[in-house]
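Tokens for chain A. Residues wanted.
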């Protein structure tokens, strides 16, 4: 399946995930901008629902963006290779560099690390933990936060 078809399918998947399984995702209305084997880009708009009392993006909204960006690759590779997986986050480290006073785009280029984790889990039947680095940038391209998300995947 080509990247455009996969992106379209995962935009629908993200919409359904946010409206059926994980309402917090739906509440922040993230937009999937890019999805390839290596890279994911997700954007969350700064608006009433995502703002804090300082008119910058609320920590919870930033966490949702990091969660999606680091986690969607697990489902992407499961779909691509016809696997049934169990996926969760085991840990998270966040560094907030400056206030996010505009829309924020979350990116990672570590998809191949998660692909290796999925393949290793498929071979061993074990749960595999893989740290994934996510960067959050404002509309001016300035780094506002970095996240290290410990992705935990097991093939069933």
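Reply:
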């Amino acid at each position: 399946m080509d990247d455009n078809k996969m992106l379209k399918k995962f935009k629908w998947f993200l919409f359904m995930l946010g409206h059926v399984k994980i309402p917090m995702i739906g509440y922040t209305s993230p937009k999937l901008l890019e999805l390839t084997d290596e890279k994911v880009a997700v954007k969350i708009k700064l608006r009433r629902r995502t703002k804090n009392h300082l008119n910058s993006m609320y920590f919870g909204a930033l966490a949702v963006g990091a969660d999606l960006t680091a986690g969607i690759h697990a489902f992407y590779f499961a779909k691509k290779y016809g696997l049934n997986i169990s996926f969760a986050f085991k840990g998270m480290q966040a560094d907030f560099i400056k206030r996010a006073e505009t829309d924020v785009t979350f990116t990672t280029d570590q998809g191949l690390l998660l692909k290796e984790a999925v393949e290793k889990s498929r071979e061993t039947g074990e749960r595999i933990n893989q740290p994934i680095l996510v960067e959050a940038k404002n509309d001016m391209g300035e780094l506002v936060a970095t996240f290290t998300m410990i992705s935990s995947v097991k093939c069933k």
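The mean pLDDT is 93. The chain has one domain: 3-155.
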